[in-house]
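RETRY 2/3 - previous attempt timed out on the joint model. Re-submitting the same 916-residue input unchanged.
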Amino acid sequence: MEAKSHLDRQEIAALTAEAWSEQLATVEEAEARSMLAQVEPDRLAEVIRLLDAALAGRVVGLLQPERAAAVLSHLPDETAAAVLGHPAVERAAEVVQELDPDDAADIVAEMDAPQRDALLDASGDAGDVIEGLLDFPEDTAGGLMTPEVLAVRRQWTVGEAIDAIRRRAEELEQIYYTYVVDSDDVLIGVVTMRDLILAPPMVLIDDVTRKEVVSVFVDTDQESVAEVISRLNLLAVPVVDHKGRLVGIVTVDDVIDVIHAEASEDIQRLVGAGADERTDSPFSYALRMRLPWLLVNLATAFAAASVVGLFQSTIAKLTLLAVYMPIVSGQGGNTGAQTMAVVIRGLALGQVPVGQGRRVILRELGLGVVNGVAVGAVTAVIAQLASGRPGLGVVIGAAMVLNMAMACAFGALIPLGLRRAGLDPAQASSIFLTTVTDIVGFGAFLGLAAAALRMGWI
Amino acid sequence: MEAKSHLDRQEIAALTAEAWSEQLATVEEAEARSMLAQVEPDRLAEVIRLLDAALAGRVVGLLQPERAAAVLSHLPDETAAAVLGHPAVERAAEVVQELDPDDAADIVAEMDAPQRDALLDASGDAGDVIEGLLDFPEDTAGGLMTPEVLAVRRQWTVGEAIDAIRRRAEELEQIYYTYVVDSDDVLIGVVTMRDLILAPPMVLIDDVTRKEVVSVFVDTDQESVAEVISRLNLLAVPVVDHKGRLVGIVTVDDVIDVIHAEASEDIQRLVGAGADERTDSPFSYALRMRLPWLLVNLATAFAAASVVGLFQSTIAKLTLLAVYMPIVSGQGGNTGAQTMAVVIRGLALGQVPVGQGRRVILRELGLGVVNGVAVGAVTAVIAQLASGRPGLGVVIGAAMVLNMAMACAFGALIPLGLRRAGLDPAQASSIFLTTVTDIVGFGAFLGLAAAALRMGWI
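RETRY 2/3 succeeded.
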């Protein structure tokens, strides 16, 4: 997503929201309708997010049910639920009937029970379908799927199957895969629209069925569903219960958000926050995820501090060392974090084949040395000018080159080692890295300084 | 993606690769073929990545061209190119003819020019199509698209369109959208398979065409293409040249990798590495991306160090302060990084609507206080026991609560502020955060310690 164009859209949405807040209160209904008719549903959704719920409800109430449904499907579920609570229940039910049942279920799941029950009652058959979906946890195949799936029998002809698709095309979320079931509704294969179009109408479905169909269980977690769809390049995957019976279908657009969320988890794992933590997760959950890693880190911080402890007498001779000490360790931490981010992402995107780890470590070691020389030289000159002690400049420069080289090597080694050990390469990696950069940074700087002081060079 | 099941697959692939390296050299061709026939293409690809290129080439040469193409489409482009260089050129050409042209173009782009030319020459018409695609940069719509797209005219009937699809179904990558063009090949609309199936065969295409078709230009960058497909829940998007003429199509499976790569960029931006940097990017590119931020960070590190400089006389009185100082600043940095990771990802996933920033900052401030009290108490007890100075425990505990609270508040404030300013919330955020946690950490700890020393409490 281009950050800049995204912001431009947000700015446009903000200006529109401001204008509407004034105008919609005063203009006549017909005029309001014609204003709204000119805006695409995804743009409308961006504006509606910024309106207060009552006004947003009014806007959605003014739209045709089909357009209102398209707008709601672009909103976060909680927002859509709040908005849908405002129009009269009959009006809201018309919108619900136009939504895909899986989207509708996610939205009404955010309403309180009496409001939800009233709305589903008013929504007729669609309400019953949605009610059935509410039993599945939101983060499973059952929670993602739509139950509106066309199943045909193997003894049907291709012509009969096409007729069945034609009759139900309006309500089906996708018509590209048609699933084949036996007399117990057990999934036995799939026919694609391409197969149907290519085959003469009198051929039996059995003769064009692909038997090696991939399916997921209703309770398969959403990450695995997304992984199957993206690895096998599918447009949809059928969902079966534990008796193998076809109960629904998950389409690729349902898992794009899951792929987005999954792909960006490493940034949180890296620093020891929960992979699934959100800005609106319960406070206690956030605490439970984060505190243990902070305590692990505390232990490693004491280990690093004990290195400083070894050099107390050196610091007593020259307290200026305490001033420069954090610069050396901090720059190691920063350059190592850059390496680690690139390597962790590289592993996640499959850029580092097994056996290529050594090459990556050497490359990063090289980057660490070059960056270390550049940053160390600048620091050495500043330290020397500021302190008037040439020896101090040399010591700090040398310590930085050493620490930054180690930082980059370990920034690559830690995630690669975690992967080789069968662990998650990102999990709290930054904590291990900081331990290395603190210990090496403090040790190298203070050790060199102690030696230089003994020699009388500083 | 489940890390664990992924690793299991990798382990299986590694074992298989080992076994094959021995067996395939000795068994007869027929036996080798039947061994390979039992393995699914995506599994085969995982094994082939681990074989040396010559053996991998032999394996691919043994497969039927259609299966070989399926295997290659699961490999990274460079690997696929190396593998395809091994069989005889006529054999390789058969495989190329089975590949989707967009995938084939990505693969042959990795070969050296003489090898590529020989292979494309041997591939007949398919070779010409692929050659045309090589003109487009890989990271644009032109580089992602396949040129094999079916266009129909508005004056055709639905029946004629279906016949045309049937004739070309084998070679078309998707048949769900059929595009409508005028006599100059300019894109004017789209008909879905659903529209075609529902309409009587004698109806004119013009009557079922959707005119509000969304398209991208050949030179639109791949991030924007992915964004359009994912925002509008499309299965494919048509690609037009700057005269509006239909030249190809990008399907959703082509952009899933782009979505993956895009969604995980923030981890690199956060630490000031280039968003697009890979583990195999040129050394000079990595250096150019990373060094400037390290130098920015150096300036902020000197600012933090100057805070320590203010307290040199305090440190001279009690050098133990230099030992505990990095623990206070470091724990602030860690807890702040946790906050920052959750907030940056929350912004990227749209979890933080405009106007909700204050709520997020307060929540994080609360987390910082609670984590600070927990971690600060543990540290205070250890510091007191280790140093025998109760006052030092109190000072360090108090400084940690303060610093960790500030760290979390700023961990939220910095990315939210960057977003509000229209900047990228992730760009080098961690550098600004470290500045805050170092300055507050050193200042609070050494300031409190100086006061306590004056009072005789330590």
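Chain A has three domains: 3-135, 151-263, 283-455. Closing ticket.
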